[in-house]
Every structure is written in C-alpha cells, then in structure tokens.
C-alpha cells in the first residue's frame, strides 16, 4: 500500500534562494529513487521559509529504503546547511473509512 511522507522543513529565511536551489538538487535523487511515485514542495503562505515536502511512496518498504539511503554517506545532501531547525518526518497511510 502506498504511503505519504511529509517532511516539514524550516529553511533559513535569509538564504531562501540558496535553500530552494539545494532542495531542488536534493529532490533529483528523491524523485529518481525506486518506489517514489510523486514529490511536491509546498510553502506556508504566511512564512515562505516553512516548507513541507509531500512524497508519495509505493510502499512503507520503499520509503524505509529511501530513509536508509539518506542516512548513509552516499545519500547525504547539503540540505542541512540551509535549515534553521531539525526536519520533522511524518509517514501516513490512507485509511479506508
């Protein structure tokens, strides 16, 4: 079953153009990762430095494999250099109700 991952980011407001560039570069690998069905980037209308990346993964296993990749030396990105707080990740499954 597909899952949706919400990655809540607090970008450095003084470095938004650079942060957007780094995020775009980072998401190239995300979009190309096995099991990635969709990636959208949304910004808070009141605070453009507050960004939520909405990812759809084919399964929990695909999402877990991606998170393991990002935690490895090969998967590290420069995203941490443009954040002012630690990111928050929430993984959601659709309920059939």
From TrEMBL:
InterPro entries hit by this protein: ABM_dom, Dimeric_a/b-barrel
Pfam family name, one: ABM
Domain ABM: start-end pairs: 7-74
Keywords: Monooxygenase, Oxidoreductase
Chain segments annotated as transmembrane: none
Highest taxon, organism lineage: Bacteria
GO MF annotation list: monooxygenase activity
Record protein name field: Antibiotic biosynthesis monooxygenase
